[in-house]
Amino acid sequence: MEAPLESEAAAVASAGADGLVGGEFKASEEAIEFLSSIEPAELQRCVFSDSLVTVSEGGQELGKFALTVEFARRIQRPCLLLHGHSQGAIDNNPCGTAVTAYLSSDLEVLEQDHHEYLKLEGHTLDRRCHMVRRDEEMVIDKVTTTGEVRGKNCVSYHLSAVRGLVTEGSNLLLMRLMALRKKVPENMTFISLDQELHIIHTTYTEVGPTQLEVGGETVEVFGIERRVDSVKDVSATWHCYFLPDGHLASRGQVGSPVIMRLLQLPSQLENDPLKDKPVFEKRPLVWEEDMQMHSKFLDRKEELKADYASYMRQHPELRVLLADFLHFLLLRKPDDIFRFAREYFLPFASRRPPETSLKTSPL
């Protein structure tokens, strides 16, 4: 059984053993044209949430999946913020994934954080991959921890080598756009990354309309097939089906015994105030691991540093004053530093008792 939001590239055997690099894999012109054709009005229609459950062949609920898309800003640049997370179990072993991605209007990755874990008896498998655009490069850091063994892989690609890159985050939004258009153009070949962070091909094709049962109703859905190629092994394929309004109705890997399904139509969920709402467990906030909050912290940090540096350049006497104070402090080595500081700075006050000046104190 696969993890509920298992990385789609995880099912692909490593394509990096032969030293293949980005130059040998390129997105098709049709794929690049599709990304450049995205209109702001289409993105507006993509800003909503999805919530599905993962079930086994026998109908047993194994986990949950949630996806949110909203408008945001990153380093003063308008963008889309996508967050997907899931939790479940593989053979009764807890597992989960989380993807947070900042995407431009043409689905270019500005920054993405992808975390996967599987808790086995005695140890945990943990994978974290962070990618960020820096100047003209895409920098990718991946850390894999298996028990006590920790491995790290770092690569960077020039932006020209990753045109048409589809990641775990942008893939979900890309298919939502195709579903809203109700058409997957011919030759939709993009590029993706395998487990060794080498570039490979990923292709989208239209499955065609079909019908699914959702919440006791039979609805028509639009199907999209995604195939992730491999150099040495067989390709991995996923089938996703969408409602006419773009909501994800079903998602599953071909050959897997589990599938993600929508249990209730979105309109029913919105119009039924008595319907039990899902309860999510409260988790402690670790802001260092929240990419949005950490990004805001770094932006504010750099802003303050620049502001302070500017002020000090405009007032060079500040450095002289502080250096003089520290010089006196280290010479005297007083027990009461606060009292010493008060007496030292009193002469700079507009009104002060002259007898308390430090100049009149004995050496």
From TrEMBL:
CDD domains: DD_CATIP. GO terms for biological process: actin filament polymerization; cilium assembly; determination of heart left/right asymmetry. Residues 30-257 form the Ciliogenesis-associated TTC17-interacting protein N-terminal domain. The keyword rRNA-binding does not apply. This is Ciliogenesis-associated TTC17-interacting protein. It comes from Myripristis murdjan. GO terms for cellular component: cytoskeleton; nucleus; plasma membrane. It holds the Pfam family CATIP_N. Its main location: membrane. Plays a role in primary ciliogenesis by modulating actin polymerization. The keyword Membrane applies. Belongs to the CATIP family. InterPro entries: CATIP_N, DD_CATIP. It is found in: Cell membrane; Cytoplasm, Cytoskeleton; Nucleus. Keywords: Cell membrane, Cilium biogenesis/degradation, Cytoplasm, Cytoskeleton, Membrane, Nucleus.
